[in-house]
Amino acid sequence: MTRLLKSFVFALAVGLLAATTGVADDKRNIDVLYLRIATPERPVLSNLDPIPEDLGLAGANLAIADNNTTGGFMGYQFVMETVDLGEGDLEAAQSALQGSAAPYVLLDMSADEMTSLVDGNEARLFFNIRSYDDKLRGEDCRATLLHTLPSYAMRTDALMQFVLKKRWNNLALVTGAASEDAMFADALRKSSRKFGLSIAVEEPWVLDGDLRRQAGAEVHLLTQKLGDYDVLFVADEHNDFARYLAYNTWEPRPILGGDGLRATGWNRVNEQWGAAQLQSRFRDLSGRDMQDVDYAAWVALRAVDEAQLRTNFAEIDGIRSFLLDGIELAGFKGRPLSFRNWNGQMRQPIGLTHASALVAMAPLEGFLHARNELDSLGADEPESQCTAFGE
Asked: Which of 111, 303, 328, 353 has the most neighbouring CB atoms within 10 Å?
């Protein structure tokens, strides 16, 4: 019996018990607040990949529908309030938080905005569904902030496992100018050292012309400076310029990152382990493909639902304890998902994908761990700089 089927059978049994004892007659509300602060718009070289207006929110809406399918015969329902604010409107976000009684809050905003909102609101349980920032799982961690979006380190570790498996030892890197590019590049350097590799040569991306007309010439010259290498890493988190590198580099080499092989928490090409069914339901609901932020929102609320059932609707402290120490959640990624009790990060496989297919799901075969192979991705407990969870 699969883990997903076991969860369903458990929910059905509890539901039948509730119905026979009359508990289902008094419907219980589980309140959720979806709090979004818009991120600044960026000038881009291409409009081929627009950011959906409901990014993240669509995943939360699907989770609410899924949870309430079970809740309909078990006597509870998830009720979500959405607050959508403009750039930098932290004061309004604080007011919205204080005006809501919801114990569970999905945070769709920058890392700094998250920590500002979490501080002083320790009676709630927050979920980071937007930021990959490693500091949120390290020195800037908060005991009541859990992360369902993977970190930069988890994504770059997955890429390094892949190149190590392929025996591509000579690495080059091109880095964009955005702050996210710098964080991803830094994670790549750390991951290369972790797996006994090194990035031999780097170049900053300095081209700012219209590459739709001159990519062949400009990229050719830029990558010529890199010399010979086995694989080219690209730190371009917004896929701004990376789309113009393929087939235009001086050396014909694989490209990882950007528009090449990507390491993601979720991608539309995920079809195994029942993922096609999740993708289909999401597409029916939102009219588009699910992205990693959508999945992070969906899996956060699915985890809360599982915890509510398994703890018989415990108070917030009991829910948090179960999430950190007891949950094994079916997430359509081939392995059960759980949370690291030293920094609140959700353990999860990382898909290595390109535009048309899933190439591999990390951790790859052979990368072992004493406790959980998923902990080979990202900061492990001995190297973690997070101290809030030990207090």
From this structure: 303
